[in-house]
Amino acid sequence: MKVPSTQTVQMDFPEPGLIEVSRGASCADGHTYSLVTYLRSGPATIGTYCQGGPLSSIQVRYKARMNLVVPGDQTLDTRDFKLSVGPETKSKGISFPDGQQMGWDFRVPGMHNYTVRVHDHRLPEECLSERVQLEYRGADLKVSRPGLGDPQPSHRQGDFNMSLSNCKTNGSLEGLILAFTVAVMRSGHPVLCTVDLTKMADLSLQIQKVGSDPYCEMSADSRVQDGVTVAAGTSARLSFLDCPNEDLRLTASRAVGKQHHHRRSSLLGSIPCWCPHSFYL
Questions:
Q1: Mean pLDDT score of the chain, rounded to an integer?
Q2: How far is CA 154 from CA 94, 114, 121, in A?
Q3: Exposure on the CB side of residue 160, measured as CA atoms within 13 A
């Protein structure tokens, strides 16, 4: 969708919304979305998303495209995205005074990666003294100084400081402008499983978190949950992110006549569950 250059493309997503994941990651339900924006240098993918998250709306300036990738053997689950012309944006980024430095301190949660993207920039037409300098300093005190048009830090962990120094100009020409964003997302790659009980009307499966790890994230069909139940005669796509085996309790229940028998873990070998070997508890 394309709108006037001073306005934004707005995309609204129905519940459950989207969640940003690492580029190249696969979504548990097989539906992977990617957002493409059109910069002066050409099209660029600025985000990869899965269903089942807090993101309900995205605004992109001028022109954008949302791609959906689904495996050939996967049934397409269509969702009605609402596209509209978003608010007008007159901001040209941050205009910096001559010969000054501006800095930002970012606190990044544990088990999260950050990525800095420079969407637009303009260097002063003429520097009388000094020079424009962009600098990053990580928690380990390592320093990097990329140019404004160079690749910025991507998929890094830990707190960091970002600073931008401007040169001195004569004040009569256009000065320094920078427009950037910092995106933060969960790190790691989820363990994906498919449980199919459609031919087992007497068997159900329950998985609960029993550990105290706050970063363990479990979801069923793209919905994050503290506990998962796969009812008899149904199927589900499960995802486990940063969940050690010892932090999960799996219980299989089988109905025999009017009685229910519960067993933990050992019944998994008879359950149609396609997971990496390390998941078998």
A1: 80
A2: 22, 6, 18
A3: 23
Residues in CB range of 41: below 8 A, 6 or more apart: none
Beta strands in 42-196 (DSSP E): 42-53, 57-61, 64-69, 82-88, 94-95, 101-106, 112-122, 133-138, 143-144, 160-165, 177-186, 191-196
Residue with tokens 């000054």: 100
Asked if 237 contacts 230 with a C-beta cutoff of 8 angstroms, the reply is: no
Per residue in 101-131, pLDDT (tens digit) is 888 899 888 888 899 988 888 888 888 888 8
Neighbours of 126 (CB within 10 A): 13
Q: How far apart are the first and last CA of the chain?
A: 48
Which residues are CB-neighbours of 17 under 8 A, at least 6 positions away?
51, 52, 53, 54, 55, 56
Chain segment 165-191, per-residue pLDDT in tens:
999 887 777 778 888 888 888 777 788
Three-class HEC string of 28-47: CCCCEEEEEEEECCEEEEEE
The residue that leads in pLDDT, 267 or 154, is 154
